Amino acid sequence: RDPLDEAESAGAGGAGGGAGGVVEPLRVLGDAGLVLRDPSALHLLAAQVLALLQSEVVAAERLPRDVPDLALLLRLMQLAVECRSMMRDRDYRYPEPDRTVLHDLLPLLASLLVEHHTAAVAAGMEATAAAAAAAGGGGHGAATG
């Protein structure tokens, strides 16, 4: 590495820029993205997205785009994914949530959660009915026959 790169990283001025120790104002976004890029941090964000889908979208019958915390989590996940290119290009921005994810993918995922919950409730009702029929079904069959 060029020693000048190390000096710039330490806060010294660049080559001929005359700016002195000016730090890029939004570089903290790139740094935050590097922290969020860690697999355990991304897993935590993804788990929170699923929890919000269950509690705020499915249970409260809301659309994903109407849940601000969901949009925030998506922005943080996008920041994690885009941070390397941001730092390479020195073009720092706080990305908007991906419209395809927010308007297409998350509603589809919420509908799958509803279908899974409905199937689980139906299976539970069938199991309860079968258990009740097995427990008291012998008397019913003799009375009708």
UniProtKB/TrEMBL annotation:
Entry's transmembrane regions: none
Pfam families xref list: COBRA1
One GO BP annotation of this record: negative regulation of DNA-templated transcription
Annotated Gene Ontology cellular component terms: nucleus
Xref: InterPro entries: COBRA1 (IPR010405)
Entries under PANTHER family matching the protein: NEGATIVE ELONGATION FACTOR B, NEGATIVE ELONGATION FACTOR COMPLEX MEMBER B
Name under which the protein is recorded: Uncharacterized protein
